[in-house]
Amino acid sequence: MLFVYKSIDKNNQEKSGTIEAINIDVAISSLQRRGLVISDIHPAEESKTILGKNIGLFDRVSNKDIVILSRQMATLFDAQVSALRIFKLLGSETENPKLAKSLSDVAESLQGGSSISASLEKHPKVFSSFYISMVRAGEESGRLDETFIFLADYLDRTYEVTQKAKNALIYPAFIIFTFFAVMILMLTLVIPKISSILTDSGQEIPAYTKVVIGISEFFLNYGVFLLIGLIVGGFFMVKFLRTEAGKNSFDHFKLSIPVVGNLYQKLYLSRIADNLNTMLSSGIPIIKALELTKSVVDNRSYVEAVNESIKDVKGGSSVSMAFSKHEEFPNILVQMIRVGEESGNLGSILKTLSKFYSREVTNAVDSLVGLIEPAMIILLAFGVGTLLASVLIPIYNVSSSF
Length: 402
Hints:
Layout: E1 2-8, E2 14-20, H1 24-33, E3 37-43, H2 63-78, H3 83-93, H4 97-111, H5 116-120, H6 129-141, H7 144-201, H8 207-241, H9 244-256, H10 260-281, H11 286-297, H12 300-314, H13 319-323, H14 331-343, H15 346-400
Antiparallel strand pairs: 1-2, 1-3
Helix pairs in contact: 2-3, 2-7, 3-4, 6-7, 7-8, 7-10, 7-15, 9-10, 10-11, 10-15, 11-12, 14-15
């Protein structure tokens, strides 16, 4: 819970700020340990909706915010600015309210004697376990400026590759939605009017036209029930996908989709190679690097594979040997890692693999978009054309008979 306080420090200077605590007593005790005399403290007011619930849609910290923050911190650490001053400065300058509050809290923790990594660890929704481990490694090695540069570069690459993959799926989704919307409008608004003309004419209606008219009547008579069924089915589907079994099934399904599954595989391999390279370059042991890597992959198939690999590496196996037991890791990746282990240059090999799979993701996305665009347009034209032809041809026959 967040509390806003006003106090007087040892120099009789007024000081105000916010503090995160379980309750008000814990907040007061924490402030008193810092030598502050509390003059006022109360819970922070939260933004509410008319129903009294928190508005969380815009209260989030994006990957872009963390990238910019990391670059700013790298610059300030390189300029020999103290950590406390850095977090106070950035907390007052950032435009994101949630990030500003988190940075202010980190500054207060630093002032209370905590380390940077321990202070960041109190805000898991803003700073990931990977981020915190990197900062801890930077503290231990005394290379915080380099660590934040590594983090900014890594997050920037991850953001670019992920956005590239997401954007590739927006266009086909829009085309598919448009296709079904046009077809439904035609079947419910246009076809019924035309079918009444054909029926009244007394002419023999072709079989394919009867099929179209039958589909149109189905949508008119049972469309509401179909919509309700889709909504109910969608609700239970979403509920199922939030369960462990549902998440596992969906993650396996994503990898099995033709073409798209290959794109996802390259995306996950790019993340694994890039993450391992970044952490090993910062001096983090391979076991810890693998444990943190599974948290950024975002696919349970690969998480399971990495988990099994960690057990093998702990048992004395090499990373390449552990990866070779799982079909999720292609042979080229396993062979490259083996070369890196034998030559003692694993970090460089992982960096090369990361770049390779990032390029592969970009190429796969471009190829996918290049294939989908004409295919969707042809499908849309074929669907609408077939629909129109099935009713216009009989109308033409009726008109030509007079």
